[in-house]
Amino acid sequence: MPPLLVIASRNVLFAQSAITTFTTIKKAPVVALLTLFLGSTSYVHADSMSALITQKSTQTVSTARYNPSQTIVPSARISTRSTIQRARIPYPSIDSTTTFNTAKPVANGYAYEPPTKPAVANSYRYPNVQRQPATVLPAFLSGSYDNVDSEYLPLLSNAEIQSSIAAREVISTARTMALNERTIIQGGCWDYLNAVFNRAGVTKDTVHKGAYKQGPYANSSDIEVGDWLYYINHGYNGVEHSGLFVGWVDEAAKQALILSYAGEQRREPARYRVYDLSNVYQIMRPSV
Q1: Which of 11, 35, 64 is the last residue of a domain?
Q2: Which of 128, 138, 200, 218 has the least C-beta neighbours within 10 A?
Q3: Confidence at residue 114, expressed as pLDDT on a 0 to 100 scale
């Protein structure tokens, strides 16, 4: 074969080979696009996410079966369990003095304000003590007298404190006249007590009335502090006598402290003495 014909034949073969190669290269994108379109079509027909995952797994296995060079990647295991420890503020111990407040969220969203305690240095409460004002003793309690036994002075003081207003006026007026002023008047026991009631500014009401020899005689419970009594003087021949009742020395034995005035011409102040009040036949009570 002539040289020019040989060269021409070779060029034709080279041209055919190049066209075949170009056609193969040009077909590759078309195949890829067709595959993507078919895959998308299959995705559209998937009813749910779980069905889509199952379909993709099947396609992966089929592809790997025809192309052993591709390996199946196992699906990742997702755990919803968290290992993060949330920090919380510990609550204090609760006792009887703890005051609970409504929990309020703070900035981090997890911690809460703990209950608060009152700002007290010591939880012990001391009992309330009712302090009594200092008692000022009457001045006459420290005196020395010849017309009253000192052991009866406290009884006289209590009579002035615990009696009614009218009785207190009578008791204190009589004590001033007898112990402090040592008053002497003309007359007997009736005149002296009448002067005491008048000076105290009170009246006298008869609350019990009987007769000297016949009675009826009053019970001890009928007699009160400041009463003007008429009674039988068993210590002096059983004669009639009157006196100012101060208080009981022995109520069961009818023994009482009485302010008595002898009077007549003796020129002696009234005296506080113990008398037997078994037979009291008249009681006159002071009132305002």
Answers
A1: 64
A2: 128
A3: 56
Mean pLDDT of the residues in the chain: 74
Instruction: Provide mean pLDDT across the span 14-19.
Output: 49
Using alpha carbons, select from 229, 182, 177 the residue that is nearest to residue 200: 177
Q: Token pair for residue 247? A: 């208080």
Phi, psi of 16 (to 5 degrees): -60, -40
C-alpha distances out from residue 91 to 56, 103, 115, Å: 53, 12, 7
- The verdict on 54 and 178 lying in the same domain is no
Q: Is the pLDDT reported for residue 22 higher than 50?
A: no
- Expressed as residue numbers, the domain containing 60 is 3-64
- Kindly report the number of other CB atoms within 10 A of residue 282's CB atom: 20
Count Cβ atoms within 10 A of the Cβ of residue 56 and give its class: 0-12 exposed, 13-18 middle, 19 or more buried. middle
Does one domain contain both 52 and 158? no
State yes or no: pLDDT of 199 exceeds 50.
yes
pLDDT at 62 over 80: no
CATH number, domain at 248?
3.90.1720
Is residue 286 a contact partner of residue 206, using CB atoms and an 8 Å limit?
no
pTM: 0.54
The packing angle between helices 189-200 and 165-175, to 10°, is 120
* Domain membership flag for residue 71: no
Structural domains counted in the chain: 2
Q: In this structure, are residues 105 and 112 in contact, taking their beta carbons and an 8 Å threshold?
A: yes
| Whether pLDDT at 204 is above 60 | yes
DSSP state of 45: T
Q: Identify the domain boundary among 16, 40, 64.
A: 64
